[in-house]
Amino acid sequence: MRVPDLIAKKRDGHSLTEEEISFLIDNYTKGIIPDYQMSAWAMAVYFRGMDNRETRALTQAMIQSGETIDLSPIKGTIVDKHSTGGVGDTTTIVLAPLVAAAGVPVAKMSGRGLGHTGGTIDKLETIPGMRLDLATGKFIEQVNRIGICIVGQTGNLVPADKKLYALRDVTGTVESLPLIAASIMSKKLAAGAHAILLDVKTGSGAFMKTPEEALALAKVMVDIGQGLGHPTAALITDMDQPLGYAIGNALEVKEAIKTLQGKGPDDLTELCLTIGAHLLVLAKKTTNEEEAYQELKGLLHSGEAIDKLAQLIEAQGGNPQVVEDFDLLPKAPVLLPVVSDREGYVDKIDCYQVGHTAMLLGAGRATKEDRIDPAVGIQLCKKVGDYVNKGDVLAYIHAAQHEQGIRAKQAVLEAYRLSDHQPTKPPLVHSVLRG
Fold first, then answer.
1. What is the CATH number of the domain that holds 21?
2. Model confidence over 111-161: pLDDT tens digits?
């Protein structure tokens, strides 16, 4: 095979065979195919797309580019959840112990945050002593012993994706549905999950800005999972405003703990129960979502869900007292209120601006090399639909420095749009796609 011929074939709108796609990915990962040729191929895919068979073949080739995790020694059906990223998205820290408390094993590999979206590993690292770098053998042993383990992604999973994503990032080819879908699903499947629930975000704080775009991506990913033999479903969920009230690592951990105690925000609680119900059905723990939803709701109020989080923290070297004593979490030295200068109903919150402001405070990374400040962030007090009087506090800024906090105050104030009329709240779940 010649690489120029494969570039031209895709450029002219033809489908590549599984062998041709495997040849490209394998040789690019090994450094045999240079960046300039792979850039041309990625641009051809960007304009011409890929059919479902090609996209599944691309995903499989990327999985085979590195090591895979064999979770067959774990008893039961391993379910996994993937979110396409948002602001205040603390669902994994709530969902994992909640689903494990229901008797479904959770063997979760999570990532770090980049840009305005947070990462589960960064959040969990705010808990004193918490270890998230366990070896695979220890990872599996812990899941069999207590039903749950959360670790960082190993560097040897899907090396093709790391190379290809870095290339796409600098060649204007990120926004390609087959390339996005293969990137996400290759990592999920290489990590050993049997069944996958996709939480595809849509709105101003999400990568996919409209429900239609999010649904199109979800359909491609569900087809990949189903086509490669893994039960897969997707929820299209709202990210036109932050999920919950906390944005920032320690702040989100605190909110997740409250949610597991049955005292969390309505939207975060509802989303976790809804996603969790779908996970229980995928794992064949229950036959329908309503039955699963009620079971999970009971676990929140019985204390079993928060007990499972404490068990997870202790098993991985952390201090389980954090579930009772929030003073063990990092705290920012500067706390500044964002005060409304007008009255009305909250009509809109610019979700991206709030997330970006939290990143500038140090809660997130602009580049992979940036250091996270675990204590900083934004605590919202008002959400869409709430009435605000002049002088009411819209949010609190948790900052490392006063000047930094002042800038963040103004940015968050500008993110709020008030109206004389009470708006209709956007649906939390726009649609469900079952495989």
1. 1.20.970.10
2. 776 656 668 888 999 999 999 999 889 999 999 999 999 998 776 889 999
Q: Domain of 166?
A: 79-324
* Residue 339 confidence (pLDDT): 98
Q: Which are the catalytic amino acids?
A: 82, 161, 168, 183, 187
The number of folded domains in the chain is 3
In Å, what is the CA distance from 284 to each residue of 70, 79, 294?
A: 21, 10, 16
Is 273 in the same domain as 149?
A: yes
Q: What is the model's pTM?
A: 0.92
